[in-house]
Amino acid sequence: MSVLRRSALAGASVTGAEVGPAAEAGEGDAGAGWSARVRAAVRVERSAWPGLLAGATLVAVLLGVFAYVLASTEATSRREARQRFGAQATIAAGLTDAILATLESSATSQASSVLGGAIDTAVVRDYAKRSNDAFLAVTAGDGRLLAASSDAAGALLSSPRALAAMRAAESGAPRFSDLFTGPGGATVAIGAIPFSGPAGRRIEVVGYPAATLYVFFSGLLAGALPSASTHAFVLDGNGRILGSQYSGARAGERVPVYFWNVLRRHRAGGYHGASGSRYVVAAPIRTTGWRMAITEPLDQLYTALSGSRSWVLWAVFAALASASLVGLGLLARALSSKALIARQSRELARANRALTSANAELDAFSYSVSHDLRAPLRAVDGFSQILLSEHAGELAPDARHYLDVVRRNAVGMGALIDGLLAFSRLGQQQLSVRTVDVERLAQDVVVELQSTPGGAAAEITVEQLPPARADAALLRQVFVNLLSNALKYSRGRSPAIIQVGAERLNGVPVYFVRDNGAGFDMRHADKLFKVFQRLHRAEDYEGTGVGLALVARIVGRHGGRVWADSKPDGGATFHFTLGAAADGR
Amino acid sequence: MGADGIEILLVEDNPDDVELTLRAFERHRLANRMHVARDGQEALDYLFGADCGAAVAGAGERRLPRVILLDLKLPKVDGLEVLRAIRSDTVLARVPVVILTSSREERDLVESYSLGVNSYIVKPIDFSKFVETVQALGFYWLLLNELPGTSGAEALGRSS
Asked: Rounded to 10 degrees, what is the CA torsion of B103, B107, B109, B110?
């Protein structure tokens, strides 16, 4: 505002003193208003926090619950998938068990007929050859060697592995050892199979070559597994491969350490190996002490069972989460704009109350001024005059002069008070706007002024003036003040020539009052329309300094502007408009 | 007219204003026919006779001055209240009331006239003008104006 005011006055110094609605409105305190508004905006953001926080918490809780349900559902289905896979291992182990049991029973009956009676090395060697065994030995029920396919085989029976197997077999069920390097360097596993023959209870100790076992188990496993991605192994107690349908496996090889580490400690678990992340489950093959282990890639394991459903649910979750974020954003905006509006209306109401009370105070003030300030002045003037008229004889000439000065000042102050009251009242007064015949109004004012002592000598002409939308009483005041001014400052001219006219500027009528009087220095033009500012000394031209301020205020309230052109001793022209709407035509 | 020959009731609280007004009327020999009330309550008491022993205000003898000069801003009861009381009394309602005040406030003017005031005069600061005004006032209300049951000529004769 102060910038506007300054620019309006800067313009005035070039084209004439200029006061418009902008400058008129510039009396406010908008300078401090901006920072207050910024602070208010910050407070708005803060005041929206509790609501926003509540919304965010609610959304977070809902999303959390959803995610928990989803995750636990997923965990459940993963667990179920693992359990189902584990069951596969158990089934495979059980099947293997059953097949082995069948084979053993046929082996037992065959052994009892061939090896149950009198035996010697030739019989044993012949039988081992027919069975593709690596070696074969037959002992009595108490473990005493009866016959062996080779000396080395016989010597082998004293090895801890063979003794352990035989001792276990003494209880009546076949027992098998882990793989080891047997006689002749071949990798073998021992099987101790008890049987009863004509000569009583005996144990057949068989050396099975790893390759033979591998062929047997691989054939078994190849047909038993539902999925091509599943790898199955029959492993001995040391993690050496007895059989597998996996193309990468080799007979008697140890499985990789990471794989074996899982199975050594747990029945099942995940591992990361050469063929990716896989899950392995093992089940014991009861009669052998060996294990069935099957593996499956993790993604296959879960995808096959619950993957697609899970994907859809997590997509739903993501959609919900992003929708919530958008919702929160909107909520934040709604809350802050709501808070902003609430605060603004509160501030507006407060400002209104302040304004109302300020207005009431101003009203009381001007009433008081109007009533009480004039009474003492009247007493000053009245008693001075009584002194002058009734005690004139007792007063020295300069005492009478001083009393005249006192009286003149009292009357002058009365005029000041009246002007000030008129000026202040103008701010509050409602305009009663109608179409005014400006030319006639100006003529009336001229006639009135010409009847006063100062006005009679002047030559005043009123040209054609367009009508205007204005408050007639106030517009009349404008003409009275401008014409009185013109008369006052041109009273030294002979003759004083005053012209009231109008021209058009950008389609808007501009009224003017021109005189050939004392004029003023344009350097001081910015003071022209300010209240109590005067450009002439009081002893030259009397006046209160309110008249032109009043004119500027009236013109400003009509949305118009007023400006002046002059030079010292070159007369003065005062122009004014009554706003864009003031074009009465 | 009042039984005690009072022609003018001046209701004014400012003693200087009272003195100046009396002086202005003195020049026209009207001052001795003037009663001064220093506030609104005193004015009402005077008009309704409450100051001469009547038990209830309004029950005493009405005093009927030929004109009441009334200031607006008064202690106790303000001028507009006094005016309202005068206008709501059937007998007093006929007495002309002139507001003689410093206030130029539009609302005072409007309210005074809507309460039925006969004249509204703003006291000028310039004493000469004030004297002129008072002279005109007295001339008009006491000499020219006709009231029921009396005449301007009678009033003039009695006051001089």
From this structure: -170
